[in-house]
Design a protein that fits this description.
The protein is an alpha+beta fold. The protein is built from twelve helices and 39 strands. Strands 10, 11, 12, 13, 14, 15, 16 and 17 form an eight-stranded mixed sheet that branches. Strands 23-22-21-34-33-32-31-30 form an eight-stranded antiparallel sheet. A hairpin with a 2-residue loop joins strand 27 and strand 28 (463-468). The longest helix is centred in the last third of the chain and has 20 residues, at 638-657. The protein starts with 5 loop residues before the first strand and ends with a helix. The mean pLDDT is 94. InterPro entries: AMOP_dom, C8-3_MUC4, Epithelial_Barrier/Signaling, Sushi/SCR/CCP_sf, Sushi_SCR_CCP_dom, VWF_type-D.
């Protein structure tokens, strides 16, 4: 009775969404008070059918937000949570659409004038008339106890229209607003006309955040280039006074393949995404960009990496479309609320508005890129991957392969130094016809790092089910969740990725009923991992290390390997799993965590007259064929063997993508000359030429060597007069 769920379960952090409290009915004339985070208190709503609603408040943070309700005005004895999300990740049907976003963003610059138009879903505001308001964001100085800091502020500025008909369409001619010109980033809000101007935490619809070019002072419209030129130089001065954040950022992956495979540290930048065909407006010449998942620890900054159609990293030293880091990470970073860690808004203020000043509205893009240069990839080291798949095959971080088909709960990975635990639950394989097979398969993986939430991902029929601290995580509204010390990404019901603060990631996939778990570890975990996926140190000979430290040789018998695997069972005290059914209690919680009575079939000989033989041998080809044959024979199912083969092929493709590559670093173009080529990896050669009237001095070509250095010397383009002067000077000596 004291706990409730809400529908919808997510809302933009800007608030205004009606959250229905499920399982509670109140008299229509009853009382409902809602209190968010123990501090924001407001009246709830009860509809004619007695359904109670709380309106999500305006916040400066993302994540699960707790709130309590009272039905008597005194006792807040019911509690629930909802997910506050980045404004760009909220339900798009609840967004005010800014028609022709290019006009909105560049209004007042040459050839950008006329009416601005917005649209919305009229059914979402239950009122015949509405108010259209502008809200702004800024960060202001705050002095306390002799120290100075910044405070985030989202405020109502003025109304664009009041008591207008709720037709779902509104246009207006924007006027310069001298008084509000200091507010350069903001959002449109639409509410019912019954609300007061600027009233907070009422049911409303919000537009996306944008630079408010359309309301800037008259001087901007008179000469937008000169205005932006001045603003860019002011930003340049301010930027020089701020702490340097570039050295704190992780280097970019050297190739597009690495960037897409390193899912523990990088995630698709949706504004430049080859998978959806989005146009890379701010990065011309690029086809795909990724952003670092974690913000930098000291400054909350973010990395961005963009790639061209050859898969090469695009650098700002060669193109304005190159990768640009961010002083403020777009996703924000804990503890949020404080600049520059406010999700979305800090990024718009520090990185997007300044890009408009310098690159879109004036010709000072070099000033912007001087403060936001591409990082390159010379220090980048790809993660190592270990995998468990099929019935039950392991490939360790150091690429040792073995089979352990025990039934129970085990450590896939245990890192006491890094305080990371990844546990696997296995069950006896049951075919679609109900037949039990003498083999095991993965059914659940639970994991935790330091003080993070405990995340479990388990099979549930034809999809995967994720749990957070023993409660089911719904992914019907959001594919990405920011949780305590961990992110969870579920692009499909059969694919879940769990990402920890250290950069470690666990990818779970379901295919043909078979679950595969891939663990990605950054190089910092070298010699800090044990368990069924081995010790990560580039030495496969010690991967079968027992809990007591004994090393089992790689050529051990299958029975010895089975004993090794059984020794990595977990205890009830260390278990991270959820036991929310009688089956799980009786099968895993009460018995030993390794079932000694279950003995798998270690191998089955292939008989020439086996009716499966011909189809199996034609299917099980190439690398991984031995795993495919093993699982087909044990399960007597081609589908099971094919799922195993597919899982192995996926792992091999991942390993190929994560192969280390050598970068020699960026080379500049000689002044008064040209550089042919922008690829800086091992084996690549760059050539240099000079403009007419100049002579090339030093190397005409430079090649990137395996050691990460360039052949030759940096070339220069010099005039004939300079050459003569140099020769005369040498002769005189």
């Amino acid at each position: 009775q004291s706990c409730f769920q809400v529908s919808p379960y997510s809302s933009s952090m800007l608030g205004g969404r009606a959250l229905r409290i499920l399982g509670l009915t109140l008299p229509p004339d009853g009382r409902l008070l809602c209190r968010f985070k123990g501090e924001i208190e407001q009246q709830g709503i009860i509809d004619e059918e007695g359904h109670p609603y709380c309106i999500s408040p305006l916040l400066y943070e993302t994540g699960w937000i707790s709130f309590d309700v009272s039905t008597d005005g005194t006792n807040f004895n019911r509690s629930g949570k909802y997910l506050s999300v980045h404004p760009s990740k909220a339900d798009p049907s609840f967004e005010v659409t800014l028609v022709n976003s290019t006009l909105w963003q560049n209004y007042g610059t040459p050839n950008m004038a006329g009416q601005l138009r917005m649209t919305w879903n009229i059914s979402l505001i239950e009122s015949e008339t509405v108010n259209v308001e502008l809200w702004g964001y800024r960060e202001v100085s705050r002095s306390t106890a002799g120290s100075s800091s910044l405070k985030a502020e989202i405020s109502y500025l003025y109304s664009l229209g009041r008591n207008i008909s709720n037709t779902g369409d509104f246009s207006f001619f924007p006027q310069p607003r001298e008084k509000f010109s200091m507010w350069e980033v903001g959002n449109i809000r639409i509410t019912a006309s019954s609300t007061s101007e600027g009233e907070r935490n009422v049911q409303s619809l919000w537009s996306g955040g944008h630079v408010l070019a359309w309301h800037l002072e008259q001087s901007f419209r008179d000469n937008s280039s000169a205005w932006a030129h001045r603003k860019c130089l002011q930003w340049d001065d301010q930027e020089r006074k701020l702490p340097d954040f570039l050295d704190e950022l992780i280097d970019c992956p050297c190739s597009l393949a690495q960037a897409r495979a390193d899912t523990g540290r990088f995630h698709t930048d949706y504004s430049c995404n080859m998978e959806t065909g989005s146009v890379c407006t701010y990065h011309p010449g690029s086809v795909h960009c990724v952003r670092a998942i974690q913000a930098s620890s000291s400054h909350g900054s973010g990395q961005q990496c963009c790639y061209d159609n050859t898969g090469a990293l695009v650098l700002t030293g060669d193109s304005v479309g190159g990768s640009t880091p961010d002083r403020a990470h777009d996703r924000g970073s804990p503890p949020y609320r404080e600049p520059p860690r406010v999700p979305g808004f800090s990024h718009w203020l520090y990185d997007v508005a300044s890009f408009c000043y310098c690159c879109l509205w004036s010709d000072l893009c070099h000033v912007y890129l001087n403060h936001r240069p591409s990082s390159g990839c010379r220090r980048y080291q790809p993660p190592k991957a270990g995998v468990v798949f099929g019935n039950l095959h392991f490939i360790t971080f150091d690429s040792l392969s073995y089979t352990f088909s025990g039934r129970g709960e085990y450590y896939l990975l245990l890192s006491t130094d890094k305080n990371l635990s990844v546990q696997a639950r296995t069950e006896q394989l049951k075919l679609k016809n109900g037949t039990l097979v003498k083999a095991a398969q993965l059914s659940s993986v639970a994991m935790k790092e330091n003080s993070s939430d405990v995340i479990e991902v388990r099979t549930a029929g034809d999809h995967l089910q994720a749990l957070r601290n023993q409660k089911i995580l719904p992914f019907t509204e959001q594919r990405w969740m920011d949780l305590q010390g961990v992110f969870v990404f579920a692009p499909s019901p059969q694919n879940v990725t769990v990402i920890f603060s250290s950069g470690a990631a666990v990818e779970l996939r379901l295919h043909e009923g078979a679950m595969t778990a891939t663990v990605l570890l950054p190089v910092e975990f070298s010699n800090h991992s044990l368990g069924l996926l081995g010790r990560m140190n580039s030495d496969p000979s010690d991967d079968l290390t027992t809990r007591s430290g004994e090393v089992i040789p790689a050529n051990a018998t299958q029975e010895e390997i089975f004993t090794f695997g059984a020794g990595w069972n977990i205890s009830n005290m260390s278990s991270l799993f959820t036991y929310d059914s009688h089956y799980l209690l009786d099968s895993y919680f009460f018995p030993l965590s390794h079932d000694p009575a279950f003995v798998p079939a270690f191998s089955l000989p292939l008989k020439p007259d086996d009716p499966l033989a011909a189809d199996m041998l034609s299917m099980c080809l190439g690398e991984g064929a031995q795993f495919c044959i093993h699982d087909t024979l044990i399960s007597r199912s081609l589908a099971v063997g094919n799922a195993t083969l597919r899982a192995h092929q996926h792992h091999q493709a991942l390993m190929e993508a994560l192969k280390p590559v050598v970068s020699c670093g960026w080379l500049p173009t000689p002044r008064n000359g040209k550089k042919n080529g922008t690829h800086y990896l091992e084996g690549k050669t760059l050539s240099f030429t000079c403009n007419e009237g100049y002579i090339l001095y030093r190397s005409t070509e430079r090649t990137c060597l395996q050691e990460g250095t360039w052949t030759g010397e940096q070339p220069y383009c010099i005039t004939v007069i300079t050459v003569i002067s140099v020769l005369l000077h040498r002769n005189s000596q």
